[in-house]
């Protein structure tokens, strides 16, 4: 990451200053810790609110302890990767809370979209503001317009997730989300670089929480 920040140039060939690089690193530090902490908090809240999910997740962690060699004292990466139910709890928490709200994009060409009702805004560079221009069911996004992908609308789409307001890790049983329907960490070139680390941190915390909480 440091190599990329030191080498990157804008369209005019200007590189980032030391102060700008420090700002970016501080932003990554805050974003990485705060988002993981919030997801962990909501996972513990939803597990406490749903005893059946709590007991199933706890039973899985107790089974890990039972299978562990006598001389092993700590959770291993192999054990985390072999977990089946806890990752579903984490994915459902990521879907249900949707900590990252939007991602910004720019239309590279005119895009015709039909059958979905949206509110559209036009940004004025002169005013540095956005004006509402109407709500449309069937519309065209002109080339060059800025687009905000609203993650919550994807994660709460009843066609993809029945009863979307219900917290239910079991919805992930034998289910793999279709591309573009589950984006807790974004997508494409701007995918959150810490997504695997975040899930690892949450898994470690919940492992000890489930085994030691009464």
TrEMBL record:
Protein localization: Membrane
Pfam family, any one: p450
Tree of life domain: Eukaryota
Positions with a binding annotation for heme: 192
Molecular function as annotated in GO: heme binding; iron ion binding; monooxygenase activity; oxidoreductase activity, acting on paired donors, with incorporation or reduction of molecular oxygen
Cofactor: heme
InterPro entries found in the cross-reference section: Cyt_P450, Cyt_P450_CS, Cyt_P450_E_grp-I, Cyt_P450_sf
Assigned keywords, A-Z: Heme, Iron, Membrane, Metal-binding, Monooxygenase, Oxidoreductase, Transmembrane, Transmembrane helix
Bilayer topology term: Single-pass membrane protein
GO cellular component: membrane
Major subcellular site: membrane
Similarity annotation: Belongs to the cytochrome P450 family.
Protein name, entry field: Ent-kaurenoic acid oxidase 2
Organism of derivation: Vitis vinifera (Grape)
């Amino acid at each position: 990451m440091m190599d990329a920040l030191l080498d990157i140039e804008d369209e005019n060939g200007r590189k980032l200053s030391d102060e700008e690089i420090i700002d970016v690193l501080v932003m990554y530090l805050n974003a990485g810790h705060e988002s993981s902490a919030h997801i962990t908090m909501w996972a513990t809240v939803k597990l406490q609110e749903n005893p059946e999910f709590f007991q199933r997740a706890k039973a899985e962690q107790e089974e890990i302890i039972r299978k562990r060699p006598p001389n092993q004292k700590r959770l291993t990466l192999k054990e985390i990767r072999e977990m089946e139910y806890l990752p579903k709890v984490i994915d459902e928490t990521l879907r249900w809370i949707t900590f990252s709200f939007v991602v910004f994009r720019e239309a590279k060409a005119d895009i015709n979209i039909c059958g979905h009702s949206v509110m559209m805004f036009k940004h004025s560079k002169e005013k540095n503001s956005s004006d509402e221009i109407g709500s449309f069911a069937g519309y065209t996004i002109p080339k060059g317009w800025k687009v905000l992908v609203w993650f919550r609308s994807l994660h709460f789409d009843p066609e993809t997730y029945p009863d979307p307001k219900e917290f239910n890790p079991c919805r992930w049983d034998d289910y793999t989300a279709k591309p573009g329907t589950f984006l807790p960490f974004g997508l494409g070139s701007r995918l959150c670089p810490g997504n695997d680390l975040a899930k690892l941190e949450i898994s470690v915390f919940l492992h000890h929480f489930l085994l030691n909480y009464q």
